[in-house]
Amino acid sequence: MRIIDLSTSIDASKWEPETVVHEVTSPADGATHMAEEMAANFGLEISPADLRDGELLSIDTLTLTTHTGTHIDAPSHYGTRTTYGNGVPRNIDEMPLDWFYGPGVVLDISEAEHVADAAYLERELKRIDYTLSPGDIVLLNTGASVYAGSMLYFTNFVGLDASGTNFLLDQGVRVIGTDAFSLDAPFGDMITRSTTAATATCCSRPTSSAATASTARSSGSQQPRRPAGAVRFHGGLLPREDRRSRRRMVARRRDRRGRCRVTAAVTTGLAELYAQVHQFYARHFHLLDEGDARAWAETFTPDGWFWPAVLPEPVRGREALIAGVRETHARLAAAGEQHRHWHGMVHIEPVDEDTVAVRCYAQIFAIPAGGPARLQMHCVCEDVLVRAGHGWQVRQRRVQRDDLR
Asked: Which of residues 218, 235, 264 is at a domain's end?
């Protein structure tokens, strides 16, 4: 029997809304740590020098949430009460283990727009000529896995709507897997639909903003039932500051008669945002190509990082970025060569009011003194830009070379 591992690695270098911290204690540091712990807890005096090579154990310490990487969301993840059973949702340790072992079927919903409904799932089952049976485990291919490790992973995916979820449950499916951040639709889509619903359902009596939003999200039969387990092969939670930004993006107002209406508070039009980002990149790469290392490094946040494909780990912090640029330009000057960067096919995905994810193509041209220009390399660049005053700064940059893929 062939076993296929669908899990994803936990990598502290990749972008997660809740940052993963990976600390490695070397064997030498492990020996020192053990000696200190033995003295403090058991009164035993041991010197690292007494150990062979002064080493003991290497220890990896990971700080992460239970929603990082591959995990299962139990019913209790979605709330504190249910409309079935005793009204109390079960935790993961209370779920029958045999539910998570059974026949699996992959449904491709990557072509759906934001959400896949029951009709979409029925068409997909017909296309692959498969009839669901009770206990089947449905794995959703949303297409999000291509963005794994970047901010786009948390915004560019397809979810299930209420009808789609209910359809699978009615077929006896208890566990649904997804390669996306969430079994639900992307946050932007849910916000749009919830504000539309709130506009249609707001009553004449004034209510609080929280109550209005809650009513819009849970009104009527559109509230989907939850599967016993929602398996996410990649995952995470929006950080607290991003959740606050999401809430700020929806403004609730009342007219003179006290009726509530919901409007989207759009601070920057997409066209203006696109122009701002292009202007940022123009200055950013002019500084780099002219060798102004410090000014270029200041277009990154103080803790920003840049990870070229050829390096085993990111270059972190402005001083390290400055050193890298100066070293590169010294090498080019010695070779009598000038490099020019060209960015194109820029795709911008707003994450919140102050953050955008950018994916674009990058070409680097090499121009030797007195010789013809040549294309040095072609790359895919993924950036996370954050607002800084009236401009933008790079918080994270990952570059993949096409020739090294």
From this structure: 264
